[in-house]
Specification:
The complex is a heterodimer of chains A (about 400) and B (about 675). Chain A has about 400 residues and is mostly helical. Helices cover about 70% and strands about 0% of the residues of chain A. In chain A, a hairpin with a 2-residue loop joins strand 1 and strand 2. In chain A, helix 5 runs antiparallel to helix 6. Chain B has about 675 residues and is α+β, with helices and mostly antiparallel strands. Helices cover about 30% and strands about 20% of the residues of chain B. In chain B, strands 2, 3, 4, 5, 8, 16 and 17 form a seven-stranded mixed beta sheet that branches. Chain B has a five-stranded antiparallel beta sheet with strand order 10-9-21-20-19, sandwiched between helices. In chain B, strands 1-6-7 form a three-stranded antiparallel beta sheet. In chain B, strand 16 and strand 17 form a beta hairpin. The chains are: A mainly alpha (about 400), B alpha+beta (about 675).
């Protein structure tokens, strides 16, 4: 393991070059990433220009910030790609602790200066011009940590108490902290991302059913705990019930997507972003894309994220070790599953929760995390090439 | 080991299959929403975005007979503020106060960040809009506002238009179908807060402007009449008054003023009735003459001021002995009239009063016009014939009275009153032109002339001398009727009125002045008549159209001298216009000319200085210039600022002096 860790892009032996040539997966990932990033940038502009000007900001305000996030993300991507992913096994705990520390900042009293309350929740930490969203990083941290622990405990995974319980404990702690921000959707995603890794690692399917049975009542109390979540669930169950009331958001999203038709209203010609669609540049970006570019864009997006999933899982298949396999599965899910979840939310297939569209939704933190995931996947692909070559 | 790897591969496939299945579901759902149900969702989107925006049609302009606009439509703006979009609330509040004249409280409310959308009360003109244009967070909506370039001029007659552009009363209401035009509409998309999204407006149907209406009113005369009436109401402390000026030959209403102390703004001259009293007597005498039941020379004993007739006590203000019917009418003897009333069958008396237009609408077509009250003979008491002869037991509108006098002035033919001369479309095409319309001949020409001659004497030597115009033969009759209220006549409350026409022998203008509840000297002659004199004097000075040349020439006929020269308080006179002389015929005050006829300014000698009339109200300015022997032309109504030629210039008498208004008050 240590020997292969020495292999880098800059390998002077010349073997690296040949490996890059044979490994098309990394290049495909990079291509998909750029395609999604650029598409996203354009759509975020369309979605946010009006909002920005109505707040007295220049129309390109959000796009520029997104681009800066992407530029920083590219540095992170290259660094992660050059890094041997196996080092993450050693760094899994530190990364987790750092994430937990950041999450604590967002929930502890007395840190409002660092993490202000925005719309009733404290989800960001402001570090000068940077806004870090620990909830986004938690997904990455949990995937890495879960993959690490799953490798360590692979023989005991089928056991509930000795295998799954430690995972549940840590996920629970992370999810609880995010929940306290409050941010239910991120908390759920963290558990989902972790659970999918453990599932890939061989945990018993029965345990997942059990998890669901135990988890749902917990989730239910959480939903009831916050009035707005209850409303969202009610709205999901019957969107046509009250178009102007609680199901307003999801109805507006459906109107946006539905009115797009085959080719959409045309780029920039959407009308739902004028105050009808909540967060058209973020949680409901897909709805706006559906309105402006229609079914064609929907298919294109599904193909892009589907392709990402195929390439990611192919990298997982070719991973030289179990850690690489689990990490690749987890990070691919982070992109693909989140992407499809976002679309599902916007089309009322699942209850309305705030899920970002990876690479595309506005949010520099989200972009950074996704870029780091791509870089790591490329690192795994490279290692796989090394083993095969 | 290999079993575990196989397990991992299986799990990977399950996960990948799950993701791809999810992708399929997404595509399926997308197809359902966008392709299958697309039309329905698009319709719902349209429903919430699209809004029909009515484009108000500019209302037609109402002009006076000479094309002076009295009511016109102008684009105004409603202003709304989105406080959260303001860059600097304090600065914005200051600006709103500056430009729109908001109170500090209103301005504060307009920029209150707790509000999303504040619509300011009132509407603002293009200038205000221009000054606020480009300010973030301030929005405008165009609406049509009704402007009155001449201020209060004829507002009672014009009526009103609501801020929403709906005709509410008066001519605006009556002529609404002509004036309104057809609103157009455009489709605009609105954002979630209801504001129009820029660049999404499409005009579907352009608005069509309403037609323009030209009235019979003369703005200058109207202003003079309003001023004179207002002054009279003030000086007599009356509760209100009405004045109507009509062209007897065409039935055109030239001016009509209504003043009420309570400030109400309605044209009462067509909606309210009163008991006319003595001004009603000429109709009775005309009936007697037309039916040949009496002659003006018939003698009658006026009982020295008091008589009991049919068990009812009748009194005269001026006790008279043996007189003729002519003198009875001239001196307004109630006893004479009541005595003569027995010579007529009630049916005949009723028929003539109806023929003169009483108790039925005049045909003017004006909202809420009153038909007045004239009971049928079957409902009369034994006193009714006598009462009707002296103008009681009847309710008439001032306009009906004016039209009745117009019939006498017009040789016995009753005309339909008219307020509208012409209707023109926006492109100047005449849509409708209202020709004069005779209703019926009521009395014969000779009888009408006889009545006119008596009425001329009234002004010269009877009860209406205060209406005498010095240089002008005015014919008329005063009336002072006790006010009937709650079933009995109120003591000390009167309606003073004066009705007549001039020039007496060839009438071109019929007037009616009525004052409600004047205090002090309540007799018609003492209150209403001077108003007439003041109005006519000023009116004649500025009048161009109604007193046309041929009429003036006829007015100068020698037979118009109806009174001995030495009996006149002031010398008056007339000189015939040279028959060939073109140009307007202008009357002027002039000293030392033959009485009983109008006179053209021509004679006296030598250039004289133009008096300084700057700062005088138009009426007074015109009078002063006339007194100095000049002819007068008025450029605009309002306050005189300067004249052309200027004050002090030496010009020959008869020169036309033009009065020009000033920019500001002087």
């Amino acid at each position: 393991m240590a020997a292969s860790a020495a292999v880098t892009w800059g390998d002077p032996s010349g073997r690296a070059a040949s490996r890059i040539g044979t490994g098309w997966e990394a290049a495909a990932l990079l291509l998909l990433t750029f395609a999604l990033l650029c598409f996203g940038m354009v759509m975020v502009y369309s979605a946010s220009a009006i909002m920005a000007t109505s707040k007295g900001l220049p129309d390109y305000y959000f796009v520029v910030r997104q681009a800066l996030g992407a530029a920083l993300g590219f540095v992170l991507l290259v660094a992660a790609a050059l890094l041997d992913y196996r080092r993450l096994r050693l760094w899994a705990w530190p990364i987790l602790f750092a994430t937990l520390a950041m999450l604590l900042v967002t929930i502890l009293p007395g840190t409002e200066a660092l993490a202000p309350r925005v719309n009733g929740a404290r989800r960001w930490i402001g570090l000068g011009p940077l806004h870090v969203q620990p909830g986004e990083w938690a997904k990455f941290a949990v995937v890495v940590w879960t993959a690490m622990l799953a490798v360590k405990k692979q023989d005991r995974l089928p056991s509930l108490t000795r295998g799954l319980l430690p995972f549940l404990t840590i996920w629970g702690v992370v999810a609880l902290l995010i929940l306290l921000q409050p941010n239910l959707s991120s908390a759920m995603l963290v558990v989902l991302m972790g659970a999918l890794v453990v599932f890939a690692g061989g945990a018993r399917i029965g345990h997942f059913i059990l998890l669901a049975v135990v988890g749902l009542p917990v989730l239910w109390t959480q939903v009831q705990g916050a009035a707005y979540r209850m409303k969202r669930v009610a709205a999901f169950l019957d969107p046509s019930n009250d178009a102007t009331g609680i199901s307003y958001q999801i109805n507006q999203s459906l109107i946006a997507v539905g009115s797009g038709g085959l080719f959409g209203r045309g780029f920039g010609r959407g009308l739902q972003k004028f105050g009808y669609l909540p967060e058209p540049h973020n949680d409901f970006l897909f709805a706006m894309i559906g309105e402006e570019l229609g079914f064609v864009a929907l298919v294109a997006l599904v193909l892009l994220y589907g392709a990402f999933a195929l390439v990611g899982y192919r990298i997982a298949k070719q991973a030289p070790d179990l850690f690489g396999f689990l990490l690749a599965v987890g990070l691919t899910n982070l992109i693909a599953v989140q992407g499809f979840l976002h679309m599902a939310v916007d089309m009322a297939l699942v209850p309305t929760t705030g899920v970002t569209l990876p690479f595309m939704s506005y949010g520099p933190s989200s972009v950074l995390v996704c870029m780091a995931a791509v870089g790591t996947l490329m690192s795994i692909a490279r290692a796989a090439d090394g083993r095969e070559g | 080991m290999s079993r575990r790897e196989a397990n991992h591969a299986a799990r990977r496939r399950i996960l990948l299959a799950g993701i791809l299945l999810g992708a399929l579901v997404i595509v399926g759902r997308g197809a359902q929403l966008e392709l299958v149900e697309g039309g329905r969702w698009a319709a719902r989107a349209e429903e919430q975005h699209a809004d029909r925006l009515t484009l108000p049609a500019p209302r037609g302009t109402i002009y006076d007979r000479n094309g002076i606009p009295l009511a016109a439509s102008e684009e105004m703006y409603r202003v709304a503020v989105a406080p959260r979009e303001l860059e600097d609330a304090a600065a914005a509040a200051r600006r709103l106060r500056d430009v729109l004249g908001l109170s500090p409280a209103e301005a504060k409310r307009a920029v209150d960040p707790r509000r999303r959308w504040v619509v300011l009360a009132g509407r603002f003109d293009g200038v205000a809009r221009g000054r606020l244009e480009g300010m973030r967070g301030v929005y405008f909506e165009a609406v049509m506002g009704r402007m009155y370039p001449k201020g209060d001029l004829a507002r009672e007659i014009l009526g009103s238009v609501s801020p929403e552009g709906k005709a509410m009363s008066g001519l605006e209401l009556e002529l609404d179908t002509l004036l309104a035009g057809e609103p157009g509409f455009s489709v605009v998309r609105r954002d979630a807060r209801g504001r129009p999204i820029p660049g999404t407006m499409q005009t579907v149907v352009a608005p069509v402007r309403g037609n323009d209406v030209y009235l019979t009113l003369d703005a200058g005369l109207q202003e003079i009449a309003q001023e004179a009436l207002r002054a009279a109401v003030d000086s007599t402390q009356a509760a209100g008054g009405d004045m109507v000026l009509v062209d007897p030959r065409t039935g055109e209403v030239l001016a009509a003023a209504t003043v009420r102390r309570d400030g109400s703004r309605q044209w009462r001259a067509v909606t309210d009735t009163y008991e006319p009293g003595s001004t009603f007597k000429p109709f009775f005498v005309a009936t007697l003459l037309e039916e040949k039941r009496a002659r003006l020379s018939d003698p009658v004993f006026a009982e020295n001021g008091q008589a009991v007739i049919d068990g009812r006590t009748v009194t005269d203000t001026h006790p008279l002995g043996w007189i003729t019917l002519r003198e009875g009418l001239r001196e307004s003897s109630n006893i004479t009239m009541v005595k003569f009333s027995s010579r007529l069958p009630g049916e005949v008396q009723f028929r003539y009063l109806r023929a003169f237009g009483f108790g039925s609408p005049t045909g003017l077509r004006y909202p809420s016009e009153s038909a007045g009250l004239l009971r049928r003979p079957a409902h009369w008491s034994r006193y009714s014939q006598g009462s009707l002869a002296i103008g009681y037991e009847v309710g008439v509108t001032p306009l009906q009275m004016a039209m009745g006098y117009a019939a006498i002035a017009n040789g016995g033919v009753l005309m339909e009153p008219r307020l509208v001369r012409e209707v023109r479309s926006r492109d100047g095409r005449v849509v409708a032109s209202m020709a004069p319309r005779a209703v019926r001949r009521v009395i014969s020409e000779p009888v009408a002339r006889q009545i006119r001659s008596v009425l001329a004497e009234v002004v010269e030597e009877g009860t209406g001398t205060q209406a005498a115009l010095g240089r002008f033969p005015v014919a008329g009759k005063t009336g002072t009727a006790r006010l009937f209220r709650a079933g009995r006549y109120e003591s000390g409350a009167y309606t003073a009125s004066f009705a007549g026409f001039f020039p007496a022998d060839n009438p071109q203008v019929v007037f009616l002045v009525k004052l409600d509840r004047p205090r002090g000297a309540y007799y018609g002659g003492a209150t209403a008549a001077p108003v007439t004199r003041a109005t006519l004097a000023a009116a004649l000075a500025t009048w161009k159209t109604p007193l046309d040349r041929p009429a003036g020439a006829r007015a100068a006929r020698p037979d118009s001298a109806t009174a001995p020269p030495d009996s006149l308080p002031a010398p008056r006179g007339a000189a015939a216009a040279p028959p060939a002389a073109p140009g307007p015929f202008v009357f002027a005050l002039d000293a030392g000319v033959a009485p009983g006829a109008t006179r053209l300014v021509a004679a006296p000698s030598g250039p004289r200085p133009v008096p300084d009339v700057a700062g005088l109200p138009l009426r007074d300015a015109a009078r002063a210039l006339l007194a100095a022997g000049f002819r007068v032309e008025v450029a605009e109504s309002g306050v005189a600022a300067r004249t052309a030629p200027p004050a002090g210039a030496l010009v020959p008498p008869g020169t036309v002096v033009r009065i020009e208004p000033g920019g500001g008050t002087q």
